Amino acid sequence: MKKVVLVVLFAVVATLCSAQIQITAVSNDTIENPGQMILIDGDEVINPDMNNNLDSLLSIWYLQRALRDTMDISFEENYLIANLPDSVYIERLKRIPTLIDLPYNHLVRNSIIFYTQRNPEKLEMILGLCQYYMPMIEEVFDGYGLPLELRAMAVIESAMNPRAVSRAKAKGMWQFMYRTGLSYNLKINSFVDERLDPVASTDAAARFLRDLHGIFGDWSLAIAAYNCGAGNVNKAIRRAGGKRSFWDIYPYLPRETRGYVPAFIAATYLLEYHKEHRLSPKTISMPSQVDTFIVNKMLHFEQISEVIGISVDELRDFNPQYMHNIIPGTSATYSLSIPSEYTSLFAEKENEIYKYKDSIYFNQNIIRNIAQSRPETIAGRTIHRVQKGETLGSIALKYRVKVSDLQYWNNLGKKTQIRAGQKLVVNAKSAPTATTTTTATAAKGSKPTPANATHTVKKGESLWSIAQLYDDISFYDLMQINGFTKTTKIKPGDKIKIKK
User: Residue 70: which residues within 8 A CB-CB, separation 6 or more?
Assistant: First the structure.
């Protein structure tokens, strides 16, 4: 009998109540000490600097090892011991108001047990982060008319970690691969990676999920396709004889994806019933108000820190998308988020900040080195370092490529033997991974978007609904164009700037 295996993805989140760890960003900037790469269980992660002052916010809760805890459970042979009878889980799932099917079976049962009984400290840390990020996610999803229950996907994708990086180089809270991020208008270059921006990546995830639902007309299939790609779901549908239920195509899906929907159901259950399992969200000491400034010049975090006194760590926490502590404002318009307590001081000294040691911070050698430092796009390749126990087959499955492709790209001929520590080339152009798939493009609207156009807000409209009326404009674009913060409210009669 075929073994049914569920892979529950669970990110490692640092439980640092008394110990405080600073995560330093990788940098080629010679002004500050660059973060050094170290190996943990064979994975490259950013070296925690234990000697830094620990006033940072998000960085003391995260380690750069998202999606590292995985748990393989053979449900035909093993059943996790539950604290509650099945009837309780069944009744609670029925009471959750949702447009998404939440069935109960032994796969879901084991996922719920895992998400409510294992590692309570990590669960409570995740729940604490949910309290901070979920309102933003729900607002974005509501603006796109998506079921709010989809918010649970961020739990299983990254454990709510905006800095999460998977082995396959998927990044951010929503684990976008490089090319998928670009296809959903996330800016990715030598200086900026908006996959790490919670707001921008959530907006992209909402559009991606909307497109997937447009393809399949079923949320469970859309959720599965987010994990393995629309192509794999369509292939499973064909192998299932045209049946279009997740549970009908379950045996034909990739191994990881078979566990993804049960994990989604379990995460939805956790968010709804964590109190019943005596799980209390950890208190996250994030400021209640964050303001956003539009930046159109080169700006280094050290300049801001030196002039107004905010720590570089805090700037990194609120602006994780800037890879080298530099906002490249001369190439495009970008946003800077800072706690409101520094708003007045930044506005007052903004010109002074831009000029502070600018010839040092933006030395051409430094800028040139950074511009040449993006390995992910060099020749469209990813370099995979073989881990102990890995085979060509398991690596091919991880990157969604064929074994024969790996053999060809690495001049292996027909050899299948590999060794731990060996480096393998993966051609990204031919290797669609977890969320790299071609999807139908959903048209946002038919109105043109002329330069310097404005929109008059009507009753019942929000920034999200306004963004849907115009081509090539997202909610995040409107925030940047109009200088809005995440808490800005609009009212009927307001004029909103609309630009391409």
Answer: 7, 8, 9, 10
